[in-house]
Amino acid sequence: MRFATRHQHNTRLGLTILEVIASLAMLSGVASGVMGALSFMERAQERDRIRLAGHEAAHRLILQYLDTPSSVYNQHDPVEVQGLQFDFAFQVAELTGSEDQGVSTDVRTARTRDGLPALGDLDTLLKTQLEQVTVRVWLNEPRAGYRAGEPIADLVRVYDIARDMDRLMEILLEAVKRPRDNQ
């Protein structure tokens, strides 16, 4: 009767040093790829948060202008949204056009520092019905890849000033009350 004997081979079970080094190199490559992707996603999320806050600041400024125009012109402090400080540039222009062409791209800025039309331009204001409000917003300190002074949001809104009768009456009354400087 034959007994089952174990065959002995000259090979060892386990990993060689080259296999260990190769597996560690592959593992570190995968780990660095995952960490790089996570870092990229965090930076992109921070940039999106800053961009969203910049657009929110621009919208707030436009709404503030629609409520009380002089408050935006007299505001020199940065706007704070979500803990971020934004500086801004504000411009208001009347859109004029001829009757046969409708509204054209001819833009005239006829505003004083307090946001009211100059008296000489009162007749232009009465003929004009559309007003273009432009706000440019930027961070006042570098953050998340944005340089200080790099525009984050440019917002342009066109609206009909005759639709808000209270606002139109306020503009007309202020223009009439103000003394004429040029006469």
Overall pLDDT confidence = 77
Spans where pLDDT lies below 50 across 5 or more residues: 100-114
> Sheet with the most strands?
5 strands, antiparallel
- Write down the domain tally: 1
User: Can you give the helix content as a percent range?
Assistant: 40-55%
- The Cα radius of gyration reads 33 Å
Let me know the number of strands: 5
Structural class: alpha+beta
Q: So how many helices?
A: 4
Shape descriptor: rod-shaped
Strand content: 15-25%
Termini Cα gap: 133 Å
SSE string: HHEEEHEEH
Describe, in short, the structure shown.
This protein has 183 residues and is of the alpha+beta class. The chain has helices at residues 17-67, 69-73, 122-127, 165-177, and strands spanning 79-81, 84-95, 107-108, 130-139, 151-160. The longest helix is centred in the first third of the chain and has 51 residues, at 17-67.
How is the topology of this model organized?
Layout: H1 17-67, H2 69-73, E1 79-81, E2 84-95, E3 107-108, H3 122-127, E4 130-139, E5 151-160, H4 165-177
Antiparallel strand pairs: 1-2, 2-3, 2-4, 4-5
Question: What does this protein look like?
Answer:
- With 183 residues, this protein is of the alpha+beta class.
- It has one domain.
- 41% of the residues lie in helices and 20% in strands.
- It is built from four helices and five strands; from the N terminus they run H-H-E-E-E-H-E-E-H.
- The chain has helices at residues 17-67, 69-73, 122-127, 165-177, and strands at 79-81, 84-95, 107-108, 130-139, 151-160.
- Strands 1, 2, 3, 4 and 5 form a five-stranded antiparallel sheet that branches.
- Strand 1 (79-81) and strand 2 form a beta hairpin.
- It is rod-shaped, with a radius of gyration of 33 Å.
- The N and C termini lie far apart (133 Å).
- Residues 100-114 have low confidence and may be disordered.
